[in-house]
Amino acid sequence: MNAPAIATRGLTKRFPGGQVAVDGVDLAVPGGSVYGFLGPNGSGKTTTIRMLLGLVTPTEGTSTLFGGPARAALTRVGALVEGPAFYPWLTGAANLHRLDAANPVADPSSAKRRVAESLDRVGLTAAAGKRYKAYSLGMRQRLAIAGTLLSRRDLLILDEPTNGLDPQGTREVRGLIKDVAAGGTTVFVSSHLLAEVEQMCTHIGVMRTGRLVAQGSLGELRSGSSPRVEVETSDVTAAASALTGLGLENVASAPGRVGAEIGTLAPEHVSDLLFKAGVSIRGFQVIRPSLEDVFVGLTGEGFDVDS
Ligand SMILES: Nc1ncnc2c1ncn2[C@@H]1O[C@H](COP(=O)(O)OP(=O)(O)OP(=O)(O)O)[C@@H](O)[C@H]1O
Ligand SMILES: [Mg+2]
C-alpha cells in the first residue's frame, strides 16, 4: 500500500511557558484525499501545519510526508502558511518569478508561462503588474495560492486559504482546490468554517484545544449519527406509539410533532404504517444529520461556524 500523504504520531507542541498548543495528534491523510483540518481559533491548526513542514520542532511525536521526513518531500509539497513572505515593493508577477526561481527542479526557460498561468488561475492577471504592498488582503491571499500552483505538486498544504476573501473569492478558491485535487494532488486545507470544509473535502479532522477529536471520511463521520424521521400530526400520542411499535429508537414528542431515529427502515414503510394506524399526517420528512450535528454530538459543543 502507498504511504499516506501525511501521517503523525503523538504530535505535540508545548510552547515555552505556555499551554500545550498541539496535544498528541495522530493525523492520517490518505493520498488523493482533500482533507479538511477544522477547528476554531487557537485550536492548534497552524502550529500542527508548521510542524508538518518542519518550520516548528515538535516537543514530542513524529510526522511523515509520503512515508519520509518533511525535508525529503519538500519539492513535492506546496504550502501556504499564515503570513506569506512576499516583497512589498515588487509586483505580484515579480514576486512569483522570485519564488519560481527558488525551485531547483523548475525549468527556467518556461518560468514566464508558469507565472502567467498561476496568476490566471487565481484571477490576478489584471493585477500582475501592481506592487504587492498595494494588494488588498484578498489579492495577497490569491498571490500566495498562486505561489503554491507554480509547479505540479503531490501535496498542497493550505492554512486557511480563504481567509480575507469575499464570498466570490471563497467560491473561486474552493473551485481551484477541487481542480487541483482532480489532477491527483492531495490537499490538506485548514479552516474554521465547517460548511466550507463540508463542500470541498473528502476527509475531515477536527481539532479542539490542541486535540484531534474526530477524523475520517465524510461518510464515516456522518454514519456516526443516524437519520431521523419527523412527523407533523395532530395525533401526537397515536403517532408516538406507532413509531415505538415499529421499533424506532429515541422517539421524541413535541406539540404537533413526533420524531424518531429511522434506522434502516424505508421512509415509505414508516409512513405507510402510520397511515394504517389511523394517524393523520400533516408533514413527513427524513432529516439526515448535518456534519454540524455530528460535531456537536462528538464535542458536546456548538461549532463556531461564523467567527
Ligand atoms: N510562537 C508561539 N508561542 C507561544 N504560543 C503560541 C505560539 N504560536 C501559537 N501559540 C499558541 O498555540 C495555540 C494554538 O495556536 P495556532 O495558531 O496553532 O491555532 P490555530 O488553530 O491556527 O488558530 P487560528 O484559527 O486563529 O489561526 C494558541 O493558544 C496560541 O496562542
Ligand atoms: Mg491558524
Task: Summarize the entry for a quick read.
The chain has helices spanning about 45-50, 70-75, 90-100, 110-120, 135-150, 165-180, 195-200, 220, 235-245, 265-275, 290-300, and strands spanning about 5-15, 20-25, 30, 35-40, 60-65, 75-80, 155-160, 185-190, 205-210, 210-215, 230-235, 250-255, 255-260, 280-285. It has about 300 residues and is α/β, with parallel strands linked by helices.
Evaluate the radius of gyration.
24 Å
Query: Rough shape?
Result: elongated
In this entry the ligands are: adenosine-5'-triphosphate, magnesium ion
Number of helices: 11
| Gross CATH architecture of the largest domain | 3-Layer(aba) Sandwich
Unreliable parts: 303-307
The separation of the N and C termini measures: 40 Å
How much of the polypeptide forms β-strand, as a percent range?
25-35%
Report strand order across the widest sheet. Answer: 6-7-8-4-9-10
Mean of pLDDT = 89
The major pleated sheet works out as:
6 strands, mixed
Main structural class? alpha/beta
Describe this structure in words.
The chain is α/β, with parallel strands linked by helices. It folds into two domains: 6-223, Rossmann fold; 228-288, 2-Layer Sandwich (Alpha-Beta Plaits), CATH 3.30.70.100. 33% of the residues lie in helices and 26% in strands. The chain has eleven helices and 14 strands. It has helices at residues 45-52, 70-73, 92-101, 111-121, 137-148, 167-182, 194-200, 218-222, 236-245, 267-276, 291-299, and strands at residues 6-14, 20-25, 28-29, 34-38, 60-65, 77-80, 155-159, 186-191, 203-208, 211-217, 228-233, 249-254, 257-261, 281-287. The strands form three sheets. Strands 6-7-8-4-9-10 form a six-stranded mixed β-sheet, sandwiched between helices. Helix 3 (92-101) crosses helix 4 and helix 4 packs across helix 5. The protein is elongated. The protein binds adenosine-5'-triphosphate and magnesium ion. Adenosine-5'-triphosphate (ATP) binds next to helix 1.
